[in-house]
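Re: magnesium ion structure - here you go.
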Amino acid sequence: MAIVELNNVSKHYGDKGPGAVEDFNLRTRDGEFIVLVGPSGCGKTTTMRMIAGLEQNTGGDILFNEQEMSGVPAKHRDIAMVFQSYALYPHMSVHDNMAFSLKLKKIDKTEIKQRVEAAAKILGIEHLLDRKPRALSGGQRQRVALGRAIVREPQVFLMDEPLSNLDARLRVEMRAEIVKLHRRLKVTTFYVTHDQVEAMTMGERIVVMNAGHIQQVGTPDELYDSPDNMFVAGFIGTPSMNFIKMRRHGEQLQGTDASLALEPWLKDKVPEGEELWVGIRPEHLRTVDDSRHTREGIRLRGKIEVIEPLGAVSLIQLKTGEHRITTQLEGRPRLALDQELELVSDMSRLHYFGLDERNLTVNAPAAEEAASLQGHQE
Ligand SMILES: Nc1ncnc2c1ncn2[C@@H]1O[C@H](COP(=O)(O)OP(=O)(O)OP(=O)(O)O)[C@@H](O)[C@H]1O
Ligand SMILES: [Mg+2]
């Protein structure tokens, strides 16, 4: 297994313009499961290819177990990759596909047999070993691609959107399989997805990227509870967080649709007359008659524009004066389109962002202040 370290890693394809990846910093724990997530083109694949040695980084260093990798070619980095296209050899059986890289390495025949059978057992494909890839379903092919990586017993797994060819149901199933597999093998893994649900359910830590830059690194809970900025706040969580612009007037925050008491700890950060963003997750808005409120924060009133019943919950879109607000209510509440609805969120559930889109809570200037902030939030 390996501790993988990236220090100020960047990749510039041309001389000019922003890089595909800029200043990427991360140190994994041994055996950690890291998810890279972000919108298309944000630099996920480029980062993976640099770790693999398929692409040379133009800045910074990559280390495996404290050893500098820059001069080490891909085949000597002891990694195994699983990509979106499984690229199985069509003329070879499942067994031979899995055994191929071991044969190249001139590994002893009995050992190859052992490793292939052990991997096939883990993945539940023992009965398919004699088949050709064309006689397999998409999910089965995906397992073979995983098996081919497992038999190599690498110190790092790199998986780039390995499930994106599967249908929704199979994805959920395979996602659980990969997590189980990781628990069993404990190989340091980098897993790329643009699906934030996949990221949240699989990652021990998640790296959120946008436009070549890391936005935040954290556990799923950290990203959900304390997003560093509005990009992460809006990217993590479905449906996305609502944002409302408000302005400080004395002890109040006022917006076009609502007003709200100013938290004492915000007084020093938001001067009189200054604007900020208030963020509210859809699942933290409740109807006013819901008795579970402790300390009422913001109240929003508007007309219902969209109702999406999902079974266990319903998503309701509300048009307030200036904003479209999404809320997630339990079950199938009796509501009709165009009906007026009033929603409330608890004070403790609100997020605050400056006009620079940074989280005002996270940017606490001193540690003591941060500690006292925590106190306020509880
Ligand atoms: N060989 C290349 N030459 C020039 N630019 C490239 C090259 N490969 C990638 N890029 C650019 O680098 C940026 C990052 O690409 P990358 O493939 O890493 O994105 P990604 O996050 O994997 O996106 P996706 O989710 O669509 O796979 C993009 O703007 C892309 O156009
Ligand atoms: Mg990609």
